[in-house]
């Protein structure tokens, strides 16, 4: 009944895997067994109290020879479902009932032959015999313990034992009355359920629950200098094995890995657990320092080095390990595990088949990085991104030529984040494609609305949008751009896509083709951050670019007095080369009037920088344009 109820209950969530289901059932069984045991204990307690009352009145009955009471006591004594024994204060048994005899294996002589004080068992709690001594000395009236005994055949009987002191009419201690409830079965059930709830069904290793218990114990503030070492292992490429060779092969591989890991950590204070999937941990509390923990990691890597034979195949297993070692009492189990997890990922991104040692700085970076990465997709859905525009200005007359769209993230916790904080993450996760498309759409729409607001200006305001390398490789780049332009009504000539120099280093014709198509339509392509990569200047000719954006590092040199003549020569050289290739030159990072003047003299066409305006809201650009027109 209980089982079918559990199956029904556990089976309601279709998201659960068979393994999670088993674990959940085990937890549930555990909880139910605990509740059942508590109810049983309560019933026994009531019964025991009734017996103790009868025994007490029987004692006075013996003294005043009231046979009726004596016989009532007899009836309870003999018929009780629990074992009852009466012994004197020296531990000699005076009376035992049949139930007690049965509990001990059915041979009364075996029970009677021994003094109570001889019934010791190695698993006796340390307090058991102290309580006994206190009772027989008359210092306490009663105690209650869980106590094991050996039966006649050597098997173990577990009992819930209540011992009460019986006093004579003058109040002197006279007998001790023991009431015993056999809890052997319940205890076995409890142990089995606990085993199931704390062990992994596939490999038999301790599971996450037990591992956390041990880790918490290992991390508890220790009196002396307790330390712990943790190796967090994730197999490299396990998913591929599972997907290509099937789950049963994957399972057998995991079992073999579990066996090998267990053989690596057999010392005292060492344990291996499976956290789930292909993630394992080895914990040691017998470490003297980092060297011991890394030695454990080395043993694990060595254990994985030999291929595993499954179904006649030799499977190569590799793993990445994150190792955390440190003093107890400083961090919580969750913190340690997170650090190990982050460190394991470092090992993985360094190529796998290795271990890395945790480092607090790398952890902190990874934690924010991780947090931002996971928040990125919803941020786009929730409209947390916005664009600031920074004007591009004609150096000759100072009029606004256009604006560069620079994306920002208004993060609910961290405030406004600049693109350097999240564009690389968006690149790694591929989110840059939808994000970049949104920026393009929004910026183009904005540019079109500037034009519509001010149809009198001669040349329409241009808009620069940054493209990241992943976007360049995206098959829909051209189609999406055309679509965005058509929907907004902006002429292709008013759009400039900025591509970094480094993204085009070594670009082959396939990569350049979409850019070439866009350029043929009239879209400008700018080479952003020019001068920071290692471009071969001669190479410029074959790129479909029409603008060079000179990196800020060149303009920075021009803030100094006197300006380094070599810097001047370089910029002059680049400008003349660019012009000879019919490329316009934009300079970034212009912060002073002196810089602007110098760059104008050198022949640069347009400039961008704080001297003119910091990136800001779109209406600021509009007012700058209107100011030009006056
Ligand atoms: P970038 O395209 O080279 O953009 C110019 C950066 O220089 C901007 O930083 C801008 O705020 C900053 N800047 C402008 N004038 C000055 C100045 O006078 N002095 C100094 N010190 N800095 C100045 P921001 O906005 O932090 O952008 C950083 C980079 O993020 C951009 O460099 C660009 O590569 C990337 N980015 C920005 N928006 C996007 C986007 O929508 N998509 C992609 N893929 N990348 C973007
Ligand atoms: Mg740019
Ligand atoms: Mg730039």
From TrEMBL:
InterPro entries: Biofilm_reg_signaling (IPR052155), EAL_dom (IPR001633), EAL_sf (IPR035919), GGDEF_dom (IPR000160), Nucleotide_cyclase (IPR029787), PAC (IPR001610), PAS (IPR000014), PAS-assoc_C (IPR000700)
CDD domains in UniProt: EAL, GGDEF, PAS
Domain EAL span(s) in chain numbering: 369-629
Positions of the PAC domain: 143-195
Domain PAS: 69-139
Ranges where the GGDEF domain occurs: 226-360
Protein name per the record: GGDEF domain-containing protein
């Amino acid at each position: 009944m209980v089982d079918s109820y559990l199956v029904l209950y556990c089976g309601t969530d279709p998201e659960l895997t068979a393994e999670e289901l088993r674990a959940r059932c085990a937890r549930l069984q555990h909880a139910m067994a605990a509740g059942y045991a508590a109810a049983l204990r309560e019933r026994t307690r009531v019964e025991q109290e009734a017996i103790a009352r009868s025994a007490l009145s029987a004692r006075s009955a013996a003294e005043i020879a009231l046979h009726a009471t004596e016989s009532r006591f007899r009836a309870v004594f003999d018929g009780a479902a629990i074992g009852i024994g009466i012994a004197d204060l020296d531990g000699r048994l005076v009376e035992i009932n049949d139930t007690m005899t049965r509990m001990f294996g059915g041979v009364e002589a075996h029970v009677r032959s021994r003094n109570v004080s001889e019934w010791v068992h190695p698993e006796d709690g340390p307090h058991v015999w102290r309580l006994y001594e206190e009772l027989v000395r008359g210092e306490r009236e009663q105690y209650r313990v869980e106590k094991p005994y050996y039966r006649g055949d050597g098997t173990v009987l577990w009992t819930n034992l209540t011992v009460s002191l019986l006093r004579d009419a003058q109040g002197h201690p006279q007998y001790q009355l023991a009431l015993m409830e056999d809890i052997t079965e319940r205890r076995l059930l409890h142990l089995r359920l606990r085993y199931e709830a704390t062990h992994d069904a596939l490999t038999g290793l301790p599971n996450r629950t037990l591992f956390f218990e041990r880790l918490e114990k290992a991390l508890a503030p220790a009196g002396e200098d307790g330390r712990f070492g943790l190796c967090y292992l994730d197999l490299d490429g396990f998913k591929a094995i599972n997907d290509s060779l099937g789950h049963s092969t994957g399972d057998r591989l995991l079992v073999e890995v579990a066996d090998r890991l267990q053989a690596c950590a057999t010392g005292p204070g060492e344990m291996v657990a499976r956290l789930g999937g292909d993630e394992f941990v080895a914990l040691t509390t017998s470490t003297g320092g980092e060297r011991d923990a890394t030695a454990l990691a080395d043993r694990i890597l060595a254990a994985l080095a030999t291929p595993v034979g499954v179904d006649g195949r030799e499977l190569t297993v590799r793993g990445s390990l994150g190792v955390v070692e440190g003093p107890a009492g400083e961090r919580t189990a969750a913190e340690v595990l997170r650090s190990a997890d982050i460190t394991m990922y470092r090992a993985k991104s360094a190529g796998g088949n290795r271990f890395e040692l945790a480092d607090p700085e790398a952890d902190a970076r990874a934690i924010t990085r991780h947090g931002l990465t996971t928040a990125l997709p919803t941020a786009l859905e929730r409209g947390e991104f916005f664009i600031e525009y920074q004007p591009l200005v004609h150096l000759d007359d100072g009029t606004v030529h256009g604006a560069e769209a620079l994306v920002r993230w208004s993060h609910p916790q961290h405030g406004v984040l600049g693109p350097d904080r999240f564009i690389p993450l968006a690149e790694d996760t591929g989110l840059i494609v939808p994000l970049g498309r949104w920026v393009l759409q929004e910026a183009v729409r904005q540019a079109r609305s500037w034009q519509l607001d001010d149809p009198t200006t001669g040349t329409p305001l241009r808009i620069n949008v940054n493209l990241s390398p992943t976007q360049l490789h995206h098959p829909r780049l051209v189609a999406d751009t055309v679509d965005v332009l058509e929907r907004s009504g902006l002429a292709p000539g008013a759009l400039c896509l900025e591509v970094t120099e480094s993204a085009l280093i070594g670009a082959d014709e396939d990569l350049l083709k979409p850019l070439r198509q866009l350029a043929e339509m009239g879209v400008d392509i700018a080479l952003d951050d020019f001068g920071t990569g290692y471009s071969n200047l001669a190479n410029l000719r074959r790129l479909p670019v029409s603008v060079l954006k000179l990196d800020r590092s060149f303009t920075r040199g021009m803030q100094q007095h006197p300006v380094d003549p070599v810097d001047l020569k370089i910029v002059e050289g680049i400008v003349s080369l660019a012009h000879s290739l019919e490329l316009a030159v934009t300079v970034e990072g212009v912060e002073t009037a002196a810089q602007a003047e110098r760059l104008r003299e050198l022949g640069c066409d347009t400039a961008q920088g704080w001297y003119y305006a910091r990136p800001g809201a779109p209406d600021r650009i509009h007012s700058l344009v209107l100011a030009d027109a006056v």
